[in-house]
Request: fold
Amino acid sequence: MRYIAQDCAYALHISNEALPFAGETVGRDNIEATLHHIRQKFDYLLYRPFNMHEGGDQVRLQVEFMYRHRASGEMLSGHFRLVLKFRDGMIVRGDEYHDRARIEAFMRLIASEA
Reply:
């Protein structure tokens, strides 16, 4: 968290109907709370960044992930794109792009099992 600017914006580009913590979050404290909320819902079994490209004030990378939904035990895996923008050595914006339909279908699946 020490590399995240106080006024940073983090956008998880998924419907917040599917994930209540999705959408855009602004401010380091709010981002930290959102990340903790995500970790309360999912165990991170794999989080592997690759294909990193730096240019100007941003870094683009892909992330391979495998998460376990804690309440259902169901596994969610795949890849997403992460774009980070920097200013003065601090992250000022993060955009996370998932396969939206896949994530939303997963969340419907585990909701129907509840």
User: Anything to note?
Assistant: The domain at 4-113 is CATH 3.10.450.50 (Nuclear Transport Factor 2; Chain: A,). The longest strand covers residues 42-55.
